[in-house]
Amino acid sequence: MQYEIPLLAMRIAATTLLFIAVWNIWTFRITPRFCAPFAFLFNISGIIFLTLGIKHEIFDLVRGGGIILFVSYILIISFIIDNFLKERGERKDND
Fold first, then answer.
1. pTM for the whole thing?
2. Of the four listed, 15, 33, 69, 93, which is most buried by Cβ atoms within 10 Å?
3. What is the pLDDT of residues 34-74, one digit of tens each?
4. What are 30-33's contacts with CB under 8 Å, separation 24+?
């Protein structure tokens, strides 16, 4: 299968970045700024792997694309929550 190496590379990158982001959030209580661009990259690649897996009926591609999409949505949600809390804190300081 010609999609194994790119899928494996993206899954390793997504899992590693997720662990780094969770550790950073746990330690410093802030989402790293590099999460937003990587979430976009993982979202696009996850959708590509998911659609290729469905088209060619390859379950490993569907599962890998789903994992990459899951990581991208977790990073996006974390980034949005962090920005919301930051804006709310700035509003309280201005009042």
1. 0.85
2. 69
3. 888 999 999 999 999 999 999 999 999 999 999 999 999 99
4. 30/82, 31/75, 31/78, 31/79, 31/81, 31/82
